[in-house]
Task: structure prediction
Amino acid sequence: MVQATVFLLVLSLALGAHSLSVEKCNLIGNWTNDLGSNMTILAVDEKGNFAGLYNTSVADHPNKIQQSPLVGFLHLTNPIDQPTFGFTVNWTFSEATSVFTGQCFVDKDGKETLKTIWLFRRHMNTTEDNWAGTLVGTNVFTRLKKQKE
Ligand code: BTN
Result:
């Protein structure tokens, strides 16, 4: 009887650990998009605040591209199931800012996809030029496969 109880306890702990390890859409990790840009979400706190780093593959600015910080919110649901999110990238090599909003989807094979829309705001010198200051577009992100060493 004791042995059976211990066995069931170990089994339930193992299953619990497994379900945690396959939890989807918590955003933490490395992602790549359809332009070849990469981003890393470093941490998501208990309120859904997150921070990370963005390496864009393209730029509107002639300066050398540098890794730039991002901060955002993940809309936490319980369980985490295809949540919406938003984040802002503060470009460190140009006087520009980008905001992204989107949703994490999981397909039948468990593959996660971040479908996003973004606004990119570049610095303009005058209000007359303001009309040309903003671009809009979409990006699709998938998890970056681990590189072999
Ligand atoms: C700049 O050009 O001043 C900063 C880089 C902007 C990169 C944009 S943000 C939207 C789009 N998605 C990307 O991954 N990169 C571009």
